[in-house]
Amino acid sequence: MVDFVGRNSGEPLDSFIDRVVNPGSTYVKRTKSVIHTVAELMKSNSVDHRIGSTVKGGSLGKGTAVKYRADADLLFVYTDITSVEMLKSKLPDLLKELHSVLALSKHKVTTVKPTPYTIQFTIKVKGRLNEVDLLPIIQLDTGDRSIETMKPIYDQMEANEDLREFYFKCLAQLQVDFVKTKDEQIKRSIRLLKYWIKTQKHVLKSYAAELLVIKAYEEMSKPTTGKIQTLNLMKAVFTKLSDLKNLKVSWDTYYTPSSYYQPLPDPPYILDPAFPYHNLTKQTSKGIDGKYVHLERDAKKFLANLK
Predict the structure, then answer these.
(1) Alpha carbons 198 and 194: distance in angstroms, whole number
(2) Which of 25, 82, 171, 224 is the most buried (most CB within 10 A)?
(3) CATH number assigned to the domain comprising residue 85
């Protein structure tokens, strides 16, 4: 029988999630404390520019981390950088500053790797390594995230293709909020799907898994809190994964996809609700990427045995 790795025979699915998949509260609290310490260190030692606030993202910030597999994004919002163009020009210096301050951390930081947009590193918490990304950004939205209010931002992005990646980083808070605010029962299924993807060595991105579960829940007519059956939600998720030719995931929360995709991509697609032009499933010139074909195959097998 195909099943989740480590699940005992006859073990209820929710019991398995609590035992194997969900991170312990002590570990999460300790990891958040360490990440917070790093964030405060960066803010206190910023040299030439002022960091006004910090957005905590990644699976840790969204509340979707799997046991012993917490990753975090630290997005530093600079208040004296007033445009995306200015951010682009100053980003190399900002990253150098963050890199130099990181060396002052009292926590063990390893495998520090600068990228064009971030500083990536790992940090040890209770003997476990956690991946962290530091990202300098600016505040683009005013807090009112209606389609009408967000449209000027997306229009600027559309008109400045060379700046889209910078806009993308600055809109990461919308991604965090879109997932973070979901019910804990939904997050349990998100963690379970992430666990399955990891143990089966599939390539679906963490954010794509989060969006897939959220969409499956919505298409179940959003059962009331406390009445979400994990098994039923997972069946809905694997049903979507087992039919890639009809996998269409998108929202019109912040923008209308048809305004930026003309036409919409061929399925499968999972469109970022916060950022036009970001499709989390890749296709090749010959059609569906072979990696996703394997995912579809395994999802079909799994769905047939899910109990």
Answers:
(1) 6
(2) 171
(3) 3.30.460.10
Q: Which of 44-48, 158-162, 175-179, 293-297 has the lowest mean pLDDT?
A: 44-48
pLDDT digits (tens, 9 = 90+) for 269-297: 999 999 998 999 876 656 677 778 889 99
As a whole-number percent, the residues of the chain with pLDDT over 90 amount to 65
- Residue 146's SS3 state is coil
Total number of domains constituting the chain: 2
Q: Is the pLDDT of residue 1 over 60?
A: no
**Pairwise CA distance, residues 49 & 142, whole Å:** 21
> Cβ neighbours of residue 174 under 8 Å, at least 6 residues apart?
141, 145, 254, 273, 274, 275
The Cβ of residue 48 has, within 10 Å, a number of other Cβ atoms equal to: 9
By C-alpha distance, which of 61, 190, 187, 203 is closest to 135? 61
- If asked whether residues 277 and 199 sit together in one domain, one would say yes
In terms of domains, do 107 and 188 share one?
Answer: no
Give residue 53's domain range: 13-139
